[in-house]
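Deadline looming. Please check this record:
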Amino acid sequence: MKRVKRLNDEKLYVELTNIIRIGNIAIKEAIEENRSFGIPETFSKNGVIYYVLSSGEVKSIQPDIMK
């Protein structure tokens, strides 16, 4: 990852922090809503897609609900 120089505009960093905070809240709400519908959380690691089932089990095989 390439490092960039820090900007002198503190307002920009405050605004970026707020945007990230709002995004993190939205992600948590979406995950909870999906869980209520039985849709597993999905993530990728080293090019492999994983699914976190409602039981907490992590699988790399696509569950039936996702087909």
